[in-house]
Every structure is written in C-alpha cells, then in structure tokens.
Amino acid sequence: MKSAVILFLMALSVGCMAQNPLKPLNPDSVMLDDFFWVDMVDSATTLFPKMKPQSLEITPKDVKNLPKLQESFANLEPNLFLTGCERGKKNEVKRFKSAKDVVSKTFKLALMMRDGKYFDYCEQALFNEIAGAWKDSASKTNKKDIAEVLATIPQMVYAIDGKDVYINMIVRNRTHIVTEHLDMTIHTMASMPWYGQCIISMDMEKEQEFTLYLRCPHWADGKSVMSSFDATAGSSKMDIYINGERPEKRIVNGYYVISRRWKNGDMMKLSFPYPIMRVQDRQSPSRMALQRGPLIYAFEENLNVKGVDGISNTFDGERETIFLASKKYDEQGNATGQYKAFPYCLDKEKYYPLIFAKKLK
Q1: Residue 17 — pLDDT band, cuts 50, 70, 90?
Q2: CA-based, 20 to 30 A from 10: which of 86, 239, 309, 329?
Q3: Helix axis angle, 143-150 relative to 92-113, nearest 10°?
Q4: Is there a cis peptide before residue 275, judged by omega within 30 degrees of 0?
Q5: Is the pLDDT of residue 13 over 50?
Q6: DSSP code at position 86
Q7: What is the rounded distance in angstroms from the CA atom of residue 256 to the CA atom of residue 260?
C-alpha cells in the first residue's frame, strides 16, 4: 500500500511538471579555470584522450522514468553518508560507485525538477568521494571510471531553457552561451570552495532579457541537506549586488531568481558565507563531524571535542587547503591541546575512520 502511494504521488509530480527539463551546456562551451577542479578535469582528459564526455542531457526516456528515479532516490536518501555515498560502504571502490550513482541520479532530478536541493547532494558526492578517489594515488578504483565523471563537470556548471539560465556550480570559468534566444559570454572569477567572494560579469553585443537562477546551497545557511544529519552553525547570509545595487530577493526551489534586462558589462558580486558546521549523525548523536562549504573534514586522530568551542579556519599554503582547528580533550574533559582537521578528499582512506570525533558534554 505504501509503495503504491509513493508511485501515485510521483506520477502526479510528473503530470504537474509544467516546465521542460533543463538542458546542460555543451562541454566545449565552458572553459574551466577553477582552482579546485581544473587540474583534475584536465589530467583526466589528458590521461584518456579518446574518452568522450558522456552527454548529461535529459532524454524522453528519462522523463518517462522520473517516478521510478524519484522513488529510487527517496529510498536511498535516508541512508546517505556525509561524503555523498551510501552508508556502510567501507571499501573505497564501493564508495566511489555509490557516489557516482548519487551524482547521476541527483543531477537528473535537478534538471527535471528544477530544484537546487538535488544539486546539493550531487555537489557533496563530487567534492568528497569523486575528487577524493582521483586525488588518491593509491586508489584501487579504476582511473578511467573516475575520469568519466570528472569529464562531465563542465556540463554541470550551467543549465538553460529558453530565457532561463541556471548557475548550479560557482566555479572559475569563461562560458559562451548561444541559443535561439541568447548570445552572451559569462565570466566567473571565484576561489571556491576556499573563499566565498565571487564576481560574475556579462559580455554581450546587445541588451538581452533573461532570468538568472543562482543556486543557494544548504551549506551557505549552515544546514545539512541530508535528512539523517543535523547541523548547527553561526548565523550567516548570502549577499548579491548587481552593479553595486542589491536586487530584489526572490528564492524559488533553492535558487536566487533575478529577472532583468541585462547589458554588456553588467557585474554581479556574490558573497557566499562559509559557516563551519558542526554535524551530528542522528543515529549516533554523541559524535560530531565538521563541514565547511561542500567539504567534509576529518580529524588527524581519534579525539574528544566540545560543541561549544570556537573553530578557526586557516589556509595551509603547503597543502593548498584550508584546515580547521580547535581544542581537544581527554575523557575527563580536560583540555590537552589543539586538533587540526583537513578535507576528507585529500586522503580519504586515511581520513574515512576519522570523520567523527566523540562529542563531550
């Protein structure tokens, strides 16, 4: 009976989907120059020069199978781990395959449902498990399998439909968008996921009217998108200015919506907050993990922490990453020094058991 109700509701959602699925851009239109991704994407395509990026465009078959895809993800979601793979996948190859499945399912759902929350899941799997698999030189995962996912990233940055332009990932890039309705180049200067300042400028020969949808990730609000985890963080807000003025704030399905007549030289300045989130597993509330942006952090050792302590973030030039630091304690609650926490993706085999620390009262 329960499964029949789920299928009915999902079939109803397809009928209510008045808009067409969004279309990803051709990867040749997007020139990545991103600090986090460009080396991985370039090395993947260089290592496998005959590999053709898989098209991420939604097919009629995908639309027909939307109810099944929704049901599949609805059953999977409560069992997702922080890093974007299914719980219990301790073997690195199985974690990668699970994360790849999450990326595929959630990206399709994001395009068909035009809902930014699905891209939050997709992003978390990309930044943690997929990037981590590529960075791990000793990984047993087939390099070509990882490269095939990395090669699709340029298609994930933007999506379009008519005069709707969606920005799903804030990455440093130069992109030329040419459609029946639009002809423009978008320049994005960004240093994410390390720093939240971003400038997007428009280059076009004539004024064009279109609606820009800018994804507002859960982590910018200090929230976890995953239903089996709770997150707490300090207050924060995302700021947007266009040519020095704040546009009207309108958020729809996880996207900041800006409808206007755009002209050459228009400049949008974005300030994404990066609150440090203390994340607790509802299944094990006595444990605490750390998240900053889409990156999950891991501790250098098994230790005890307190949720009331302040946490600093510092850029480590040698490792080219931001690390987090705060106090650590013994079992009796006595401070014993400081810990450092680093992004899980830097060495996921070493860090997998160290994502959570014991939280003392």
Answers
A1: low
A2: 86
A3: 20
A4: no
A5: no
A6: B
A7: 13
